[in-house]
Amino acid sequence: MRHIPSPSAARADRRHFVAPDARGFGHVETWIFDLDNTLYSHEAQVWPQIDERITLFVANLFGIDGISARALQKHYYHKYGTTLRALMTEHAIDPHAFMDFVHDIDHRHIELNAALGDAIERLPGRRLILTNGSRRHAEAVAAKIGILDHFEDVFDLADANFTPKPNREAYEIFLNRYAVDPAKAAMFEDIAKNLRAPHDLGMTTTLVVPRTADPFRDAFEQEAVEEPHIDYITDDLAAFLTGDVGT
Q1: Burial letters for 133-154: b for 16+ Cβ neighbours within 10 Å, e otherwise?
Q2: For 126-166, how does the pLDDT look when each residue is reduced to its tens digit (9 = 90+)?
Q3: Sign (positive/negative) of CA torsion 53, 150, 170, 232?
Q4: Which backbone phi and psi does 18 adopt, to 5 degrees?
Q5: Residue 131 maps to which CATH number?
Q6: HSE-up of residue 55 (Cα within 13 Å, Cβ side)
Q7: Per-residue pLDDT reduced to its tens digit, 7-18
Q8: Is 247 domain-assigned?
Q9: Phi, psi of 69 (to 5 degrees)
Q10: What is the DSSP string of 17-52?
Q11: Distance CA 94, CA 161 (A)
């Protein structure tokens, strides 16, 4: 099939990396995509808004200033993986209220991506979104990009019982819900650690990295990490899916 470059054709550029023993895509029946910073670039200015809303939620919850809230937010993020998981664990907050608040953002900078839409539509088999965000957020963003209709469904954090990626349990709940054979699935993500469990479960994995550094995200979250659990790396998802990268 034409959807990926062969290892021999891959560019030497680390941002178009193909592992020597990379799993192929010819057997793939289900294509699974993360949403945020995977299906759109950071120029869409989505994450900075969400990040700011998380800080505001923390500030309002504890009655503290923005600087203190930001520090606490990042402490929780590094300790629990997500700020929400920390707030649920330590303070028993309503996760639905949190999700509604932090995803109340402006979508004006999200642009239609016809090339990506065409590439996804041409993928043979099922296509699903697996996100740590909310369904409403994912559907709104995907609709703006012009790709929502190409997906069978959106699996959000609530569907995972608010167990976020990279926890293996989140992927297992997802696989069970949609009766997906991980050995016949491919996962596309923008954070390297979120691909470890999918790879261990048998999926072919692709890390999607930004073409230019995103100043609003930690450096480790956007590194082109060459590790055994990452089969491919690309900074152009549409081109990668159509086989243009490395050819």
Answers
A1: bbbebbbebbebbbbbebbeeb
A2: 999 999 999 999 999 999 999 999 999 999 999 999 999 99
A3: negative
A4: -125, 120
A5: 3.40.50.1000
A6: 14
A7: 334 333 445 789
A8: no
A9: -65, -40
A10: -B-TT---STT--EEEE--TTTSS-GGG--HHHHHH
A11: 13
The single-letter DSSP state of residue 157 is T
pTM exceeding 0.85: yes
Range of the domain at 169: 7-45+109-241
Residues 40-69 have a mean pLDDT of 93
Segment (H or E) for 127: strand 126-130
For residue 220, pLDDT beyond 90? no
Please tell me the total number of residues recorded for the chain in this structure: 247
User: Helix crossing, 47-62 with 66-80: angle to 10°?
Assistant: 110
Is position 182 within any domain? yes
Same domain for 116 and 178:
yes
Residue 126's Cα: distance from chain center in Å?
17
The mean per-residue pLDDT over the stretch 30-52 comes to 91
Question: What pLDDT band is residue 82 in, cutting at 50, 70 and 90?
Answer: confident
Residue 121 has pLDDT above 60, yes or no: yes
Q: Which residues pair with 154 in a beta bridge?
A: 129
pLDDT above 70 covers a percentage of the chain that reads 88
Count of the separate structural domains present in the chain: 2
Q: Is 45 left (phi over 0), alpha (psi -120 to 50) or beta?
A: left
95 shares a domain with 13? no
Per-residue pLDDT, averaged over 39-66, amounts to 93
